[in-house]
Give the backbone structure.
Amino acid sequence: MNERVVSIFLDLVKISSPSNNEETVRQYILKYLDNYNIIKEIDDNGNIIADYIGPNKHTILFDAHMDTVKPCINISPVIKDGKIFSDGTSVLGADDKAGIAVMLELIDKIYRNNLQTCSIRFIFSVCEEIGLFGAKKLDDKYLKNIDFAFVLDGEGSPGSIVNKTPYGCKGSLKFIGKEAHAGVCPEKGINALYVASQAIVKMPNGRINENTTCNIGTIEGGIATNIVMPEVSMKFEARSYNLNELESLKNKVESICKETAKINNASFTSDLKYGTKGYYIAEHDDIIVLFKGACRNSDLPFKLESCGGGSNANVYRQRGVDAVNIGIGMKKVHTCEEYIEIKDILDTLNLLIGIVGSF
């Protein structure tokens, strides 16, 4: 077993790094990079950009994010039956410190074994978990002349590649009624929640079809129990692999809300906006052909997967880079039951060696 990459991973997960608080893990990475002839810098947003200059003209980009979701204080990793868990009081942070550990160990492998590879740009990004902000704010100069970009942030096993992700739309649905004393003259009021509830039962909800989902995640409103609720605001989101279906769903939801408000002499406003674009990559596209070959050379089963969420790969593709998210084996992410198999960490490392040696 390559105990070094596992040791790096265990070091990393013990460092608390919720979004916007990545400094300690950033310093760990920078100290590690000091041991190698790597060109590195920190941009204005806190992203680390590190460059290895290889012997040929091609450049691969690898990306993993430094932040984790909460709870992530005092993470205590536990190894059992070849798997690494937390002690159950926190997330583990394999999302995405497994990706970081593999990238760091790849650098050591290249120098220690004098591997002949292409040039590699390593990006350790911030604030992925709260909106992909590190990737979104990255300066264009760091994305020039990149042949392919691989984001190490997938839940699938090593060898899986996310070739389809959804488009997204989210924002607030707000109903405005009229306040009145609930015990003295409720008939003079218009209860915004009552109006909203009528709209909700008419609206699509959950899984619409194999392409599309939607959800109301939070509801806020009201002043006191003795006041007819004058306003209520609901946070809504929808996702679809088909942009036309997403647009149709958005229009339907807004139309239902407007009509329901009008019937009840209430008002309605919304601020639904489209987010990071989804993507679809065909199996014959160059980036998947390269990845498939690396899987074959690493004796890993190749698998195409779809994903219901986005990653930094969506941002990079939207910005003109041929990017894709790949599976690294993390399981039950964003929960205190999160874990990763040691074998998957090692397989991901071997896969990356295969990718950078493909040119």
